[in-house]
Write a structure and sequence with these properties.
single chain; 356 residues; alpha/beta; 50% helix
């Protein structure tokens, strides 16, 4: 039986095949939850600036305080990477920018107008399902024949995506936001990270029920059997090595049963005990149990028994550079900002050619 896709996925994937870049060089900026990466269509180099975009939003503030370092990075990164000065320049804002849009569209539009005025770069807020398509393009490019699953799993700080070439499921439930959600629900705390461990059996049940609730839309968004390859650090440098160490193996995948055993082993421990058990610094171990519960929830929601793992320095740059719609909007930016205020995320999927 055909299962309906979510509206967001349908909008973003109506014409998923990413078109070839137009004549002339392009520079794209990937504005993630923790910084900016710059890449160019005629260069294999990249440059990066560290900026915490998610922190101010989780603390109840806005992105306005990031304006100065953002403008500086957008102006300086192309020269730092040696890109040509006359390339068209556009940026894509992802999880933190979607959260800021949800909180106050007018305030974000004003900030984006300021960024464009001071840096010359139009930044668009990219729908999450479109981000999923970018991720799959990048993973297929980077992994080649090593990508043997139907989908990739990318868990960032502010969002997660499960995507193949034509469909994606994405929600604002990345490593930090999921941990923050558990801190609020189980510890009534706003700090990230909070003292989530040790957790009782009842608290684990609460966390699992919450994951099931948050991931409920995945079945409708991803028709057919789903197998996943995790490519991001919360899994490749956190969950995977911890499960392998506790199981006494060195495989490049793990089964759901092994993950459940690792969760049971660590749940009753403190963060310090967890860090010693898995050989990880406490600052990273603080997120490990919540990461494990999120991955377990994803396996459960997709009906997957095993997760493949292949670390990849995945960025949205290949997808951004090939996205003609993004660059079309860059040349009609005042119209885009007007639509952002009224349509929200759907501003991106509307037609730039329909602007006055």
């Amino acid at each position: 039986m055909h299962r309906p896709r979510s509206l967001l996925a349908a909008l973003a994937f109506a014409a998923l095949a990413l078109p070839a870049a137009a004549d002339g060089c392009r520079i794209a900026f990937d504005l993630g939850s923790s910084g900016i990466r710059a890449g160019a269509s005629n260069s294999g180099g990249t440059a990066r600036a560290e900026i915490d975009y998610l922190g101010p939003l989780l603390a109840g503030r806005s992105l306005d305080e990031t304006a100065v370092p953002t403008v500086a990075a957008l102006r300086e990164l192309p020269a730092k990477a040696g890109f040509a000065a006359d390339c068209a320049r556009v940026g894509g804002g992802f999880s933190a920018w979607r959260l800021a849009l949800q909180q106050d569209a007018g305030k974000l539009a004003a900030l984006l107008a300021r960024i464009r005025d001071e840096s010359g770069v139009a930044v668009l807020v990219v729908p999450q399902a479109r981000e999923g398509s970018y991720g799959f393009v990048g993973a297929r490019q980077g992994l080649g024949e090593r990508l043997r699953s139907s989908h990739i799993l990318d868990i960032g700080g502010g969002s997660l995506q499960v995507a193949d070439e034509r469909n994606a499921f994405g929600i604002p439930l990345g490593q930090k936001i999921w941990h923050h959600t558990l801190c609020r629900e189980i510890r009534n705390a706003d700090a990230v990270p909070c003292a989530l461990q040790p957790m009782t059996g009842e608290e684990l049940a609460t966390a699992r029920a919450l994951a099931q609730e948050k991931l409920a839309g995945i079945d409708a968004a991803l028709p057919g059997p789903v197998t996943m390859t995790a490519v991001s650090r919360p899994v490749t440098r956190g969950v995977m090595p911890a499960v392998a160490r506790l199981a006494g193996s060195d495989a490049s995948s793990f089964r759901k049963t092994a993950l459940a055993q690792a969760i049971a082993h660590l749940a009753g421990q403190s963060v310090e005990e967890t860090a010693r058990a898995v050989g990880s610094p406490p600052v990273y171990a603080a997120f490990l149990l919540s990461d494990m519960l999120l991955v377990e929830g994803l396996l459960q929601a997709t009906g997957s028994d095993e997760l493949q793992v292949a670390e990849l320095d995945l960025t949205n740059l290949p997808g951004l550079l090939a996205d003609d719609r993004l660059f079309d909007w860059g040349s009609r930016y005042p119209c885009y900002l007007d639509r952002l205020r009224s349509l929200g995320l759907a501003a991106y999927t509307s037609d730039p050619a329909s602007c006055p």
